[in-house]
Give the backbone structure.
Amino acid sequence: MKTVTLESINLKNNQTLNEKWLQAQIAENPAILGLGELHLRTREKIVSSGGRLDLLLEDADSDSPTRYECEIQLGDTDESHIIRTIEYWDLERKRYPQYDHVAVLVAEGVTSRFLNVLSLFNGQIPLIVLKLEAFKVGNDIALHFTKIFDKVQLGLPDETEVAEPVNRAYWEKKSTAPFLKLADELISIVKEVEPSVESNYNKHYIGLTKNDVAVNFCIFKVRKSFVMMRFHVERDDEMIQELESVGLDVEYNNKWNNLQIKFSKYPSETQKPLIVDLIEQAKKRRGL
């Protein structure tokens, strides 16, 4: 077997393999970043501040598109590139609020000092930092991207979230008695599938606990005229069509990977088996 030697390349000091070359490689195949099936919207986009955004990428999911404002820096990152990346992200999200937006910084080196600075933004700004490594393999160039700093998605209620606890009296004031009762009835369906769960009252939703540990494979948001039940399940368009065919008000949130159904009354005989199946899927996905 022939041994292949990898020769590391410093792109900052390379006159041929420069930033324009790197832009072209990513533009041709954005999937090499390791951020999913992305496609190129534009290169060197002029933004309202007068600067140029290196790459504007978008995911392939047209139902819930996310745009990635991507800045490239050869060598070690510095203050100006961090500020520029965040500035372009902010300008784009304000101009196109119908999309989700993620700031992406690609650099050959990110020092511990800048990692400490970047950590201050985590949870407030959806920021991803990718470390780029380039290697010469024979006559070819190989690029490798490592995610060293990842965005934190806010607002996902699951067992890792520290939710502010409240009591039932809080929800009696916040909602209406008929729909709080409806939430109880929906939770009773969950208990048919998993008898050991209990209601867990939090400020923004009613979740589930098992042995005093949050297991939010389903959550409930009680409003004055309906109950929103969310299931932590994979998207399945055939399943969604089947749910809609029996009169359920269904929406899938691709950002948080959950399916939500709006209830104004207890599920009918044709609807309930589908709800039970969703609960079982959600429970299985949570490893319960």
About this structure: Residues 152-162 have pLDDT under 50 and may be disordered.
